[in-house]
Fold this sequence. Notes:
Number of helices: 13
Bound molecules: S-adenosylmethionine, 6-(5-methyl-2-OXO-imidazolidin-4-yl)-hexanoic acid, iron/sulfur cluster
Distance between the termini: 32 Å
Strand order of the largest sheet: 5-4-3-2-1-9-8-7-6
Shape: globular
Strand content: 5-15%
Number of strands: 9
Structural class: alpha/beta
Radius of gyration: 19 Å
Amino acid sequence: MATPARLQEICPARQARNDWTREEVRALFDLPFNDLLWQAQGVHRQFHDPNAVQLSTLLSIKTGGCAENCGYCSQAAGNDTDLKAIKLMQVQEVLEAAAEAKAAGSERFCMGAAWRSPKDRDMDTIVAMVEGVKAMGLETCMTLGMLSDDQTDRLADAGLDYYNHNIDSSREYYDKVVTTRTFDDRLDTLERVRKAGINVCSGGIVGMGEDRADRVGFLHALATLPEHPGSVPINALVPVKGTPLGDMLEGLPEARIDDIEFVRTVAVARITMPGSVVRLSAGRESMSDATQALCFLAGANSIFTGDRLLTTGNQGSDADAKLFGKLGFGRSV
Ligand code: SAM
Ligand code: DTB
Ligand code: SF4
C-alpha cells in the first residue's frame, strides 16, 4: 500500500506522470481515507496555492434539441425533459453575460452549446464570441461537441484558451451512458484540440450508476493522455427528470454518489494529475459545506460560480462567498 513516505516516489516534485497503471490508480482509491487525503494535500501543495480557488462561469449559448443521447442530459432531444430549446444566442447577448461574470469576479467564461458538433455556418458567430470575451480580459472556454480539423483551427486562430470535452466515464461504462458516439470519438476531438495548441478541459461525471472500477478507468484514461488536461471538471450527476439517469436516481436514491467516494475521486484526480486544475463542478448545490471543504482539501481548486450551470441550478455567489469566508480562501489560482 502506498504510504506518505512513498510520496516522492509516486510523484517526484513537480513532475507529472503519464504512465499510471490501472492498478496504481485503484490502489490510491483503496487507501485509508486519511492516507489518501494526506497524499492528495501533499501533492496539491507542491503544485498549487492551497488556499486559492479559480472561478469559472458557464453560459448555455445554444440550448436543447441535441442530436446525441447522453443519458444524463436535459438537452438531448430524445430525453423527455421540460427544457425549452433556444437557438444560438447573439454575440452581443453573450458579451453582456460575460461582462456580468467578470464583474462578479469570474476569471474564465465557459460557453456551452447543445450540439453533437458545430455547423460550419455557425463558426463565424462562435469566433466572434471568443474574440469578444477575450477582449474583455476573460479566459475563454467553449464546449461545442465534436470538432473537425478546420473548426479546431478556427477556434485556435480566434485565441480560444480552453476547449471542454468530457470523457464522462470509463471506456467500459461509456455505452451505458451514451450510444450515439464512442469513447474514441471523444479522444479524437481531444487530440485535435491538443494538437491545435488549445488547452484541454476534460473530466466527467460520477454517480451515474458506475462502480469504483469505472471511476478508476475514467481517471486512468485522463491521467494517461499524452498531456494531462489543463482543467479536469469532476461533476456529480445532477438528476434531471425525464432523463434515463436522472429517473434511475429518483427510483434508486442509494445510487447517488456517496460524499466520501466523491472526495476520493477528487483526491485521486489530484494525485494522478498533479499540475491540473481540478474543478468541483456540477452537483455542488446538493453538497454540504463540509463535503465541499473536503473536496478542496483533496485538491479541488476551481468551481463554477453563479446561480446557474447550463440548464440546472448552482450554489449562488452568496453561498460561495460565505463558504470561502469560512475557509479563508481569497485569491484565485
Ligand atoms: N454538447 C457538448 C458536449 O457534450 O460536449 C457540450 C455541452 S455538455 C452539457 C457538457 C458536459 O456537461 C457533459 O459532457 C457532461 O459531462 C456535463 N453534464 C451534462 N449534464 C449533466 C448532469 N445532469 N449532471 C452532471 N453533469 C452534466
Ligand atoms: C462540465 O464538466 N460541467 C459543466 C461544463 N463542463 C460545461 C456543465 C455541467 C452541466 C450540468 C447540467 C446542466 O446544467 O445542464
Ligand atoms: Fe448533447 Fe452535450 Fe447534452 Fe450530450 S451532453 S446531449 S452532447 S448537450
